[in-house]
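Notebook, p. 212. Picked up where the previous page left off. The plan for this session was modest: take the two constructs that came back from the sequencing core last week, fold each one, and keep the raw output in the notebook itself so nobody has to go hunting through shared drives later. Recording the first one now, exactly as returned: residue sequence, then the structure token string.
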Amino acid sequence: MSVEAQRHQNEIPTLCYDPRLEPFGGCRLCIVELEGARNPVASCTTKATPGMVVRTATDTIEAYRKTLLEMVVGENREVDVSPLRGYASGELTDLRDRYGINGTRITGATSGTSKTDENPFILRDYELCISCYRCVRVCAEQEGDHAINVMNRGFHTQITTEFDGLLKDSACTFCGQCIQTCPTGALADKKALRAADEIADAVPDKTRTICPYCGVGCSVDVLTNNEKIVGIHPAMDGPANEGALCVKGQFAYDFVQHSDRLKTPLIRGDDGELHETTWEEALDKAAEGYRKVQAEHGRYSIYGVASGRAPSEAAYLMQKFIRVGFGTNYIDNCSRA
């Protein structure tokens, strides 16, 4: 029913819903009035049928939703979190503001115990956890890893790994899916949060691009502040990845601004050391080397391997260079598999 409502641009609030996951009906925020039903029903787990009469925002339903949100907000250490925590980290904040909740009418103890982990990527701040289980479900349903699960019941419910150990010792592949689906920031991007103090309350700029690490072509949104990359969000509407990324696509972006990254071509001089030069001189030197090898050892002594991190146009030119320039098919690409 939630899908039908979205199709008709009728927004129904939710915290446990992710369109990539199977309906769960855990948060109960998406309850609606169904004509003929004794009690409100969860729209995400109720299938739409012909002739069904549904009321999505009556005074009674909105009062239920506000009370549920007050209970959730009252158990969380904080609701205002940095957008650098993750793609969906502001969902609870947005709903709190939408319903005008100040968090004082219903209060309780924080709902989880945060984990001090040695891994460099994922912050597990479970005092912000609302037990929506989106992280557990995305790990199982989308990644097939089952690296995290649920421990205990009731108020003592906790998201955990097998034997309650460290995340780096579990089956986790650090794809970051759990981070990006979390609606409260309980799971957060540690690397991105390094820039949280720099951007303060500002919202980082987003630029849509393609991940350069392999030939799949995953769409990503690069988060920047003052032209500096501070994080990566997977594109949920990316045709190749639909919100998924591997550990490299999610976290390995430091090379872009690394101090060791080459900015000018280098040529090794007679002294055996590398020296900065112009592109013209560097290309002439490379061409001279190719001609020398071909003259001494023949055309089959030259083999080309294109990089999966290069764009398709570069791969095309690489194979053209080998096939036309040397008349062989000695060309491969690291992303062909």
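Okay, moving on. Second construct, recorded in the same format:
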Amino acid sequence: MPHDLPETRIAAADWRAVEDNLGRDGYAVLPSLLTPARCEELAGYFFQDARFRSRIVMERYAFGRGEYKYFSYPLPDVVGRLRQSLYPRLAPIANRWHAAMRIEERFPATHDEFREICHAAGQQRPTPLLLRYRADDYCCLHQDLYGDHVFPFQAIFLLNEPGRDFEGGELLLTETNPKRPGRADVVPLRQGDAVVLAVNHRPVRSARGFYRAHLRHGVSRLHEGQRHTLGIIFHDAS
């Protein structure tokens, strides 16, 4: 398998460190999963309307400013491969998190099996999406929850280079912890990097086991330029 394929880079990642970072911070950065050429290819999809099932202008719904588009099935080849390749690396971590937080649902070994579960429950609309931000655009803090079956992680890929293609527009992650003050992180990303982050909550160890800290993510205001991101959400929508 050629070195520049996303599957090769995903397989080569330090997944023990990814799990450690997710458990400590609620996110983990996987550097250089996509080549610059692949990033440009994916960003160019934004203008190919036939690839998408819907377009959302954030300002209309008080989500922020900017726009995003949900892909339709069948997904573009690289998007489907990213979803298929990341899921089996994350599913065992997801099952350990659910066990720690005493959440009953467990996740099967492959994404095809999980998608069947989603579709049987009426969650049949694909959720991978492309987002575009321009000057003064931003995204409010939120969680991507689309139905009863929620995979606890998602991946975000930055498709442009900060400082060259845009200024501002940092990825923000906030955590609300019932036992200590909340916190916020700016997640550092370069073109081609991915971040895996907790969709809803993460387990936090205490003297009596684990409790849940709740997380949200968003994007700070873009000062200039243009910023595209690819979002890989593993559960489909109702």
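Notes on construct two before I forget. The chain has a mean pLDDT of 96.
Flagging for discussion at group meeting.
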